[in-house]
Amino acid sequence: MSRKQVILGAYLGGVNHHTAWWHPEAGSQIDFSSFEHTARTAERGRFDFFFLAEGLALRERDGRVFDQDIVGRPDTLPVLASLAAVTTHLGLAGTINATFNEPYELARQLASLDHLSGGRAAWNVVTSFDAFTGQNFRRGGFLDRSQRYERAAEMIDAVRTLWDSWDADDLAADAAAGRFLARPDAGAFDVKGNQFAIRGRFTVPRSPQGRPVILQAGVSPEGRDFAASRSDAIFSPYGSLPEAAEFYRDVKARAVTFGRSPDDIKILPSASFVLGDTEAEAQELYREVRNQQVTGKTALILLEQIWNRDLSGYDPEGPLPDVDPLPDAPPFIQGRALVQQDRVGTVARWREIAEAKKLNLRELVLDQFERGPFVGTPSQVAEKIDSFVQADGADGVIIGSHLVPTGLDEFVDRVVPLLQERGSLRSEYTGTTLRDNLGLPPLPANPGKAVS
């Protein structure tokens, strides 16, 4: 049986508590030079794609902007379009919200990026329902939570309809005139649903990979079904076995129920790494990095989102707060996605963990707020990643570093060659599009018209 090829994505910092902005070698999170360096490094390591998260509002704590956040973030699409000019093979994946955008505009932007990059565009579909973010975009501030997946599903279907409104042969060359002529029905579309009713002609011909790649994240049954039915890849929250393998099997099985092949969707968790010349050195460096990432103040802020109340009076080196969370109070932390929806249950579980492991407040945060690090010598990290993928814990990993923008260099220089030696990572790019390099099935060049 041939070895699975490890899919690699590169993730650049952004709005999170993992980035070591205090490090003396840290660079800007918003200068183009940082994006360019990370993308060029990823391409040198034969990564599949470069990934950008998105923050649509400056996060707040008790009505005031975080003093630990990055203030500002350039819009995703211009950054990716600029990176298309300084890379040749690397996929370019951007996070764009389905709640606060319209199909026609978004379809044009992504199809244009796909053309500019030669078939390397990807869209990470996210949804939002909170009024805090929504007030930047829509009157009334939000879309009802029950409708967010409905709108996202209709958004993807509408955008794909527009992309498919051009066939590959809709542009006929007129050699005598030195131009291209579109067929009379090229670009015609008519989309009707609960969320959208649009009709017209799409202006961008079919792109090099047919459609940009669709990425999505979802843990709930509804989120897993959404990804299994429509996405080309799903971000997994699980970085270790056996939970990762169960998630892998479940999403692949759901894809089959929607008439797809298990290979039609890729499973990709995010991960960090810390390398050392010895295992002991790597573990010591990892502890140092984590202790600097999660200061006492950071620990309190992370717990405040769950408790939904001011915890600034508690000692980070003391026990967990003895007060109960306030699930029904107005959000104390605004602009950060709440992963643990059951605040009361989460607090109860964390108290049990803290008691069992003898952890203080900050130690509990260190224990619970981690994204699956690979720690060890380069050969150990290469073996861990490869074994995880070969055991169907995932199809690959999205690698980020605590140090922006140069942290990825060490992974490319020291781990990538070992993965290549194992036969689990390409030495050269073999495909011309992101879809090719991810091993996704090709799309028909003539998918059929949206309007007959």
TrEMBL record:
Residue ranges constituting the Luciferase-like domain according to the UniProt record: 26-391
Pfam families documented for this protein: Bac_luciferase
Signal sequence region: none
Residues annotated as binding FMN: T95, Y149, S220
Keyword list, A-Z: Flavoprotein, FMN, Monooxygenase, Oxidoreductase
Oxidoreductase keyword on record: yes
UniProt xrefs under InterPro entries: Diverse_substr_monoxygenases, Luciferase-like_dom, Luciferase-like_sf, NTA_MOA
Domain of life: Bacteria
GO molecular function, one term: monooxygenase activity
UniProt record similarity statement: Belongs to the NtaA/SnaA/DszA monooxygenase family.
Protein name: FMN-dependent oxidoreductase, nitrilotriacetate monooxygenase family
Species annotation: Pseudonocardia oroxyli
